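Tutorial sheet, problem 5. The two components below are modelled jointly, 651 residues in total.
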Amino acid sequence: MRIPFRLIPRAHWGNKWQVVLLVAITVLALALASSIGAVSIGWRDWLSPLQAESTGNSYVLWQLRVPRTLLALFAGGMLGVAGALAQGLFRNPLADPGLLGVNSGAACAAALTIVFADSLPWTLPAGLRPWLLPLAAFAGALLVCFTLDRVARWITPGSIAGLLLTGIALNAIAVAVLGLCTYLSTDEQLRSLSFWTLGSLAGAGWTIVGVALLMLLMAIWQVRRLARAMNALALGEAAAAHVGIEVATLRSRTILIVALLVGATVAWCGMISFISLIAPHLVRTLHGSDQRRVLPLSIFFGGLLLLIADTLARTLATPAEIPVGIFTALLGGPFFLMLLNQTRERIG
Amino acid sequence: MTSAHQDGQPALPSRRAHLQQWLGLGAMALAGLLPHGAHAANRRLICVGGALTEIVYALGASADLAGVDTTSLYPPAAQSLPSVGYARTLSAEGILALAPSMVLATEDAGPSTVLRQLENAGIAVHILAANHQFEGLLQRIQKVGELTGHAGEATELQTRLRNEWQMVRTNVEAHPAASPRVLFILSHSMSQIMVAGQETSADAMLRYAGARNAMQGFTGFKPLTPEAVIAAQPDIILLTDLGLKAAGSKAAILKLPGLAQTPAGRKQRIVSMETMLLLGFGPRLPLALKELDRSLQSAMQAG
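Model answer (structure tokens):
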């Protein structure tokens, strides 16, 4: 049965000018973040793709910095919308993929792959190898999401606390396995492992940026279709079913998208915390909890947050680099406390 | 931690200014000394790994150094160079900002994508294999000498180190007593200690010093239960100066779980050495072995 949603107004992005402003801020932030860094960039470097000969620092600008700022924006956006989807699906403002163990599930699967891939009896064809870790991370994220969905409904049906506790338990298991991998790993494997646990955007290149953009566009396309159903779901599963939403389909589709987005970001950037928790909260505080606004705006805010955090991470200690996770937590933590204070009546 | 390129000028002229400065310095320091003097002045080296930095200094190539990592603590002069951070979380742009011509790194350096980005930017990245053998050190010296245009100095250094090593080893082998069992503690917390198993730098040093690693049966550095500490029955506890400082005193070390019940604990035989000297496998290796041997011997004779 199709969804009779004529009762609810058509999807809207709010005031047109607000959208323009947001896009302008994003572009400005990208340009600003790309223009600062350890190497100083002249205006000639910006034009170098148009010129035949490359100037001194065009490599730094166009192969290192611009892909990195774009990846920060896209990965932050992916995390932001994944957080908004998870919070909408589980109808809980604390249902953040990080807290629920999706991030650690992905990292854990990647770690298991690093440590045990060499001891498998069969070897992978060389063409597939670069995709092994992203696939493993995705599988790990998917596994945690589905277990979460199943176990939470089976043990504590309808209980939001039950869901969170299940997530925390899964998170603990994933972190434990991650610790075990660290213990069992050789020096060489430990080197690749530390990348996943610390989180970094240093690996950015145009290929990754391209794939990230593709995934983000896919997410936006899906989100436009899911947003209204998510709004109905906010009233409860029974109510959503009554207005004609196939809740089971909605759940499994949302879980798939969250796992895909989180798995991909973990595979490329390691574990980056707090973005998926903070971005949707920020949007809800500013614009209310209509999912048709929360979902798209979470992309912008998540992207901007990670862009700011990564820019700080790579510029404050030049020529060295500070792990980006420190800044997402430093930006996110106090901010989250502030939000909690503002909304404590509503949450309590 | 600042570089000359943060002054807001375009980088190319500033790099040129740098080179002129280096040329001036290099001409003063190296004129007539080196066959490759002019080249040496054009070279800007980034060293990732404390032992490699020590080799560069020992070869007299330190004028070429443009930056080092956080493990490059010796000689103290290295600490005043720009720091490119922790070896495993290098930043491609940060390193490029120092305008290097070459990056010398141990296998610890990473992430691997950053090394690839540096190579793509036209920087020669040389990864030098690390092993815990004296012969490996000689090979690394040879390699660094060739890469930095100090091959002659490298040969001299090798000869000098070989002689020193021979003397120290002869000394060690002359000890009549049975080899002591030594437990090396890398780090410790209130409830747990991290010790060296096989295939570690500490294990190799102990073997060179004619001692036995009290921990057998696992590789790498692993946390240990108090029971395993007692079962290992070490005669001597060996730790780093930093580890000793973190504990506060030798008495505090003995309070760590299990240690008081070992021969080392009962006789209070605790020896500490500087981390990079003991575990670095740099050009101070003969010196390190000499000091380790002397410390172990005096600890055994005292108790």
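Marking note: The two ends of chain A are 37 Å apart (CA to CA). Full credit if you identified this.
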